[in-house]
Amino acid sequence: MIDPLLLRENPDLVKRSQEARGESTAFVDDARAADGARRAAIAAFESLRAEQNAFGKQVAKAPKEEKAALVAQAQELAARVKEASSAAADAEAAFTTAVQRIGNVVIDGVPAGGEDDYDVLREVGDIPAFGFEPRDHLELGELLDAIDMQRGAKVSGARFHYLKGVGARLELALMTMGLDKAIGAGFTPLITPTLVRPEIMQGTGFLGAHAEEIYHLPDDDLYLTGTSEVALAGYHADEILDLSNGPLRYAGWSTCYRREAGSHGRDTRGIIRVHQFNKLEMFSYVDPADAEAEHERLLGWQEDMLQALGLAYRVIDTAAGDLGSSAARKYDVEAWVPTQEAYRELTSTSNCTTFQARRLDIRHRTESGKTAPVATLNGTLATTRWIVAILETHQQADGSVVVPEALRGYLGGLSVLEPVVR
RNA sequence: GGAGACGUCGCAUAGUCCGGCCGAGUGCACCACCCUGCUAAGGUGGAGUCCCCGUAAGGGGACCAGGGGUUCAAAUCCCCUCGUCUCCGCCA
After folding, report:
1. Does residue A165 contact residue A145 with C-beta atoms inside 8 Å?
2. Active site includes A199?
3. Residue A268: which of A348, A153, A166, A172 has the closest Cα?
4. pLDDT < 70 positions in chain A
5. Is there a binding annotation on residue A166?
């Protein structure tokens, strides 16, 4: 949720943000009108309530013989209070609905427009060249007996897979390498719940435009998380944090579930787009003044990972229209996937400024002693999908795959993954 | 799955039976000051969160797990939900 004060005092800024996102500026006017109506309704209720409170004290103190008359009077007042109270509650709800239609105010410099309007910030690493026809990750995965899509489909359906043998080890190695990276940077490891309550899913902003992407268990009214961000953001919901010693940083390790509704036919081959995968996610709670610097730090750690794995990649500054409602800026790191001759997203890091924290009621105490919403940021350090880029980038003519040096320690010293003869 | 107990301001608790004098007492912790010849003890005062009006000083409202109800009036009575604990049963 955006800052109601900003809406009141600088609606034009909010409108410009909406325009950059390609969304309606009318939402801003609607929300402002709802804000005015809400405040008027609250004022009306509160003055009536004050009257009732004062009157109630008189009734309590009054001698017996006068009580009956006073109570009769109070009854009438009570009816008016009740009416004003529900009017105020309605106005409050209307305001909340209106303000929640507005996305986070994008940061200056974020390119306007939609999915294809990103800025490329930099390209790093050499695009691999092969003296042979490179195999795609699934062909390699099957040669190595590392990925089994057929059995995944048999057991769970399309877009499910088994990681087997070196495939399973590779994923654990990546995740563990990411975890070590995070721990080195001062993150606290956290293995998170993957089923969460509606209010947490709502609070993190995933029940809006992306609702159809999310698995829901109606019998228990719980949602399966599509990213550990949900549980990591919910972790400190309704709390006042102490940030006087710097940011609170968590590295969440969890399985993620996505319905992939609306992506039928896209990335149907292999493990690029699957319903269930694992992810190691950084999550920071910071003083809003430090948010943009933290964002750069998260991006830096992500790039360290890709560089250590010998992957060619580029960093893009995602356009406003492709941000999602909570983010004010988002950088994606995309690795080169040789057989697709394209960069594909491996990580994403978002600065949600105070937007997410406001909804989840996460605050910190400022130097003046007042409370204020914190800023939240998240960023990926490893996921199942990375296996795609690693296998394809480091493959050799015989179908074997050279293990990047940085990963060998996590694979018991294994330096080459060899095809399995069956 | 069955039975029961409980959920109060950072922590620990009082208040709930008998509704109004309870936004709420006490202890610890905390902050300021005072006192004390020293890492202890004592004294005085302060201190919750959110919202509304106001430039401000200040005023007002809400909040006793959450939601609803009864009532002129609810921490207190009733209902539902969530959570914690204990016992029994069951289980990968």
Report:
1. yes
2. no
3. A153
4. none
5. no
d(CA A99, CA A7): 9
Predicted TM-score (pTM) above 0.90 = yes
Write down the catalytic residue from A32, A258, A297, A359: A258
Phi, psi of A323, rounded to the nearest 5 degrees: -85, -30
Is residue A277 marked as binding? yes
Chain B bases near protein Cβ (<7 Å) = 20-21, 49-53, 60-62, 68, 71-73
Catalytic residue of the set A345, A365, A408, A418: A345
Q: Which CATH code fits A119-417?
A: 3.30.930.10
Residue A380 is labelled as binding a ligand: yes
Q: Which position has the token pair 């001062």? A: A186
Does residue A203 contact residue A225 with C-beta atoms inside 8 Å? no
State the amino acid at position A241 in one-letter form.
L
Fold of A4-99: Helix Hairpins (1.10.287)
Structure tokens, A21 = 């996102």
As annotated, the residues of chain A forming the CATH 3.30.930.10 domain(s) are 119-417
Q: Which of A17, A254, A284, A348 is catalytic?
A: A348
Whether A408 is catalytic: no
As a whole number of angstroms, the distance between CA A388 and CA A226 comes to 20
